[in-house]
Specification:
alpha+beta; seven-stranded mixed β-sheet
């Protein structure tokens, strides 16, 4: 795999990301996605919540084979397939992605990639920053960044609204589901 070419593709795609304020009063349904791994299997989890009350409306999981190794800063190549599978047919106003968006060395992390593919407002939420990056704000224990079709201030306000014990409630639930906490199968 030619990582120099992949890095250049990420830089080019980062120029397609749109940062703009989002009218939060129009947000009614917020979704979150996360992926966990066991052996050669990936398990994507989707959580849909009302906004701003953050009542869980729906959960869903989907399992796939892992198709790309873990390589730091190329995480989008590993997680995209699982996330797109679990998002298929779902409707929401904003998507929280467990991963970085603009707060990536090349300005194009997993949240930006998913946001560009689905053409919906996406927010990157990570548990720690990547070295040498900026373009994020810390909300509780979360590092929040622009994915696509939202600005950092709007992303911060949304995450603050659904923050529970230092992390956005829908992502905490998605994390547990992706690890099999709800049905014990994984």
């Amino acid at each position: 795999m030619n990582f120099k070419k992949l890095a250049e593709v990420q830089r080019k795609l980062s120029k397609k990301i749109v940062e703009k304020p989002l009218d939060i009063s129009k947000v009614k349904r917020i979704a979150a996605v996360d992926v966990s791994y066991k052996g050669d299997r990936a398990r994507g989890a989707f959580v849909l919540c009302s906004f701003p009350s953050c009542e869980v409306l729906k959960t869903k999981v989907a399992e796939t084979e892992v198709s790309f190794p873990y390589i730091p800063t190329y995480f989008f190549l590993r997680e995209t397939r699982s996330i797109l599978m679990v998002l298929k047919g779902e409707e929401f106003d904003v998507l929280l992605v467990e991963g970085h968006g603009r707060a990536h060395p090349r300005g194009y992390g997993l949240a930006s990639h998913i946001g560009l593919l689905i053409n919906k407002p996406t927010i990157g939420v990570a548990k720690r920053p990547l070295r040498g990056t900026k373009d994020f704000v810390k909300v509780g224990k979360a590092y929040v960044s622009v994915g696509n079709l939202i600005d950092l201030d709007s992303a911060k306000k949304i995450v603050e609204t659904i923050n529970e014990n230092g992390y956005p409630k829908p992502l905490r639930i998605a994390d547990k589901l992706s690890k099999g906490a709800e049905n014990g199968r994984y």
